[in-house]
Amino acid sequence: MSSGRRFRRLTRRVLLALGLLLAAARVLGDGPPVPAAPADGLYDDASVLDPAQRATAARAVAEARNAGVNLYVAIYGFIIGETIEQRAERLKAAWCPDGDGLLVVADTASNQCTYLSHVDEAEWINTAELQQIFADSGAAAATAAPDASSAEKVLAVIGSLGPRLRDAMLKHREITRHRVSPSAWWVFGGVTVSVFAFLTLSALAIRWYRHRQRATALTPHYFPTVAVGERFGAPFGGGVIAEVHFGEATKPAAH
């Protein structure tokens, strides 16, 4: 076999290998397809939890959801082709397109658990509170079961997270709720109506006064009507003659 033929064959093999590597990198970069959002908020990939554990996790998620936290939990036995943060980003974009929700992703193979939240609503718990709740749940789970399996540790985090989210939400609502008695509402309504009526009457009075001032300023002035006759052969006004000066009149110089 000639050297040129060997070179061409080697080139084809190298190009084929590069094509396969690029295809594999693209598949791994895109990751597996994202599943549909679970109706109950709990996604257990490949049944990582047994039925009893799954029921416990489902109750914790339901507890947080009943309190008003739009919580999603995804549990994986092993995440391949991407980090847990990348998987969480893709799930959050698919399950919470409006950015309204809290997503918790767990990987039992690496004993990792992370969360994503875009909390903008006033009734939701803020980011600092969520970080503290998540840290407390992880610490409580590690202290309660140091020798537990990966699935049990993840379950302990989720089981602690649900009640903590519920309690934080209820406390937040209790602080921000302003209870006003019916009598206070009546007093507030009466004061509001009185102030509105006073302002309306004041505006009408000011408008009437300005209209009257404008009408008075535009009233024409007339000279009095005087009967004129003759006396001693010359015109003579037989009444009192009134004179009105407009502006600054110049007086005739004295002679």
Write a structural description.
The chain has a domain at 42-176: Diaminopimelate Epimerase, Chain A, domain 1. The protein contains 6 helices and 6 strands. The chain has helices at 3-30, 51-66, 84-95, 127-144, 150-176, 182-217; strands at residues 42-44, 71-76, 102-107, 112-117, 228-231, 234-237. Helix 2 packs parallel to helix 5 (150-176) and helix 4 (127-144) packs antiparallel against helix 5 (150-176). The longest helix has 36 residues, at 182-217. It is elongated and about 120 Å long.
CATH architecture label of the domain at 42-176: Roll
- Helical residue percent? 40-55%
Global outline: elongated
User: How many beta-strand elements?
Assistant: 6
Parts with pLDDT < 50 across at least 5 consecutive residues? none
Instruction: Tell me the span between the first and last alpha carbons.
Output: 144 Å
The oligomeric state of the chains shown is single chain
Largest sheet: 4 strands, mixed
Could you name the key traits of this structure?
255 residues, alpha/beta, Diaminopimelate Epimerase, Chain A, domain 1, 4-stranded mixed sheet, two-stranded antiparallel sheet
Secondary structure: elements and pairs:
Layout: H1 3-30, E1 42-44, H2 51-66, E2 71-76, H3 84-95, E3 102-107, E4 112-117, H4 127-144, H5 150-176, H6 182-217, E5 228-231, E6 234-237
Parallel strand pairs: 1-2, 2-3
Antiparallel strand pairs: 3-4, 5-6
